[in-house]
């Protein structure tokens, strides 16, 4: 049934990478030059993040970002059918031993992630580790695409949990002595009455969810920031930057401050690999 429901995406997914990148090039031209999808937002964000860069440098980063953004979409669709052996050839993990050592000691791990690199490919990490792996996500209002992304993300044994149920589920695992690796995206803008805290991020006072820090503390997790370096199209190297060796020893603000600081360092190195299309600072007083 799933093959019929998502038939167009399965057709795309079985295409070889070189053909997908031809389609991606066309999509980039349409997105950047014709439709101008969120170009004002992207340029505004880049100017805020890099105030000392020239207009020429900003445009150069923006174009590279849009090329990567289009590539990433088709690479993500490829998750529907890609073979594990091909993932292992295209997705290199630089310092996996950092994780395996903690897991052998029965310590929980939190991957405090961001919209950087191809974050959807992080769902393939269970191919390299034998561990109970969970990711918290905010359900999309469009159920078709919501179900499509769950299908892609769970293909390699990642358990997708709606954010509003995540705290209870992960605490249940902790109380039952189930060692787990849990993935939480930390760079989304908090909405409504969500728990939030502010810290400096690219020269702006920026709001962050406090939920990830609370979960890490309650589950006494080792926290890592995973980030990706793009070697070439369809080939990435994954790194793990330690944020906290024991979350129970720090307050939530300290965890968020450290996360924001390390994420900013990564984005400074690879600005074109960050998601610049969302209005990250809209609720913190910035007018778009």
TrEMBL record:
<dbReference type="InterPro" id="IPR004960">
    <property type="entry name" value="LipA_acyltrans"/>
</dbReference>
<keyword id="KW-0012">Acyltransferase</keyword>
<keyword id="KW-0808">Transferase</keyword>
<protein>
    <submittedName>
        <fullName>KDO2-lipid IV(A) lauroyltransferase</fullName>
    </submittedName>
</protein>
<dbReference type="Pfam" id="PF03279">
    <property type="entry name" value="Lip_A_acyltrans"/>
</dbReference>
<feature type="transmembrane region" description="Helical">
    <location>
        <begin position="6"/>
        <end position="35"/>
    </location>
</feature>
<keyword id="KW-0472">Membrane</keyword>
<keyword id="KW-0812">Transmembrane</keyword>
<keyword id="KW-0997">Cell inner membrane</keyword>
<keyword id="KW-1003">Cell membrane</keyword>
<keyword id="KW-1133">Transmembrane helix</keyword>
């Amino acid at each position: 049934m799933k093959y019929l429901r998502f038939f167009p995406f399965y057709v795309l997914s079985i295409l070889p990478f070189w053909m997908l990148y031809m389609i991606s090039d066309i999509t980039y031209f349409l997105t950047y030059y014709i439709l101008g999808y969120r170009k004002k937002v992207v340029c505004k964000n880049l100017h805020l993040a890099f105030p000392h860069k020239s207009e020429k440098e900003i445009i150069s980063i923006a174009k590279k970002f849009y090329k990567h953004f289009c590539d990433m979409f088709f690479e993500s669709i490829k998750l529907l059918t890609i073979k594990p052996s091909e993932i292992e050839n295209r997705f290199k993990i630089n310092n996996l031993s950092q994780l395996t050592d903690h897991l052998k000691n029965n310590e929980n791990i939190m991957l405090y992630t961001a919209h950087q690199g191809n974050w959807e490919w992080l769902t393939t990490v269970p191919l390299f580790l034998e561990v109970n792996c969970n990711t918290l996500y905010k359900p999309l209002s469009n159920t078709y695409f919501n179900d499509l992304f769950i299908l892609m993300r769970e293909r390699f044994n990642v358990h997708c949990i709606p954010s509003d149920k995540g705290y209870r589920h992960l605490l249940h695992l902790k109380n039952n002595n189930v060692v787990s690796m849990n993935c939480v995206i930390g760079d989304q803008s908090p909405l409504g009455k969500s728990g939030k805290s502010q810290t400096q991020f690219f020269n702006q006072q920026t709001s962050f969810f406090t939920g990830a820090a609370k979960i890490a503390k309650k589950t006494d997790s080792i926290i890592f920031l995973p980030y990706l370096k793009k070697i070439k199209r369809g080939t990435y190297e994954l790194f793990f930057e330690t944020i906290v060796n024991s979350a129970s020893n720090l307050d939530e603000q300290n965890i968020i401050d450290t996360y924001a600081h390390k994420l900013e360092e990564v984005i400074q190195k690879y600005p074109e690999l960050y998601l610049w299309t969302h209005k990250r600072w809209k609720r913190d007083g910035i007018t778009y």
